[in-house]
Amino acid sequence: MQIYSRIGQILELMNRLNDALIYYNKALSLAKDLGDIDTQASVLSGIASTFLHEGELDKALSYYNETLSSITNEKDKATIYNSIATIYFIKGDYQKAVEHLQKAIKIAEKYGDYQDASQMKLNLEGIYEVTRYYENAEKYLTDGLEGVKRAGDEFWEAKGYSYSGALYRDKGDKETAREYYTRAYDVFKSIGAEKDAQSVLNEIKALDELN
After folding, report:
1. What is the CATH number of the domain that holds 31?
2. Which H, E and C letters describe 30-78, residue by residue?
3. Cα(106)–Cα(175) distance, rounded to whole angstroms?
């Protein structure tokens, strides 16, 4: 059961999604035979993640909801709520995305997972930014960025700066947007996150082209 589950995880990382589903389902069948509820929840989450990577949003949502029903430890539900929020965001159902992220944040903070909660707050900021609730966006951006900085999480600190750049860009403050994008670029470069650094550089170039 455990070996099938690990193989599924590896195949998912290799983007061999159909093969990953085969091994996840083998693991799930054994977990049910053994009555191993915790492994069932873990494998169901892996299946949901694979469907999400395939763009099969409804199937992913169904498996994530089944995962929630199988989880016995409330603490573990935060990550699932966060994943469900991602699906609703992609589907354009921003209200449900917000609701599920708020549930995830509440659980993470309840169990002292403040770093995860801070990352989720940055994700929540992104939803409020898209929907132009700028006051809420700024609140969660400030809280989330302070949290990841306290945790020493440089990758998410850079993401927070990038989100700040996007927020000020959308508000029409190009100068402040450039400052935050530059901070994001510098941090991404310093930690070797070249792909993310290039993405921010593209945002700076696009900013220059705005009237």
Report:
1. 1.25.40.10
2. HHHHHCCHHHHHHHHHHHHHHHHHHCCHHHHHHHHHHHHHHCCCHHHHH
3. 35
Which residue ranges of the chain lie beneath pLDDT 50? none
40 lies in some domain: yes
pLDDT tens digits, one per residue of 38-87: 999 999 999 999 999 999 999 999 999 999 999 989 999 999 999 999 99
Q: Which residue has the tokens 């091994």?
A: 23
Say if 84 falls within a structural domain: no
What is the C-alpha separation between 157 and 178, in angstroms, rounded? 16
DSSP state of 112: T
207 falls within a domain = no
**Total domains in the fold of the chain:** 1
Q: Contact 77/100 with Cβ under 8 angstroms?
A: no
pLDDT at residue 211, as a whole number: 61
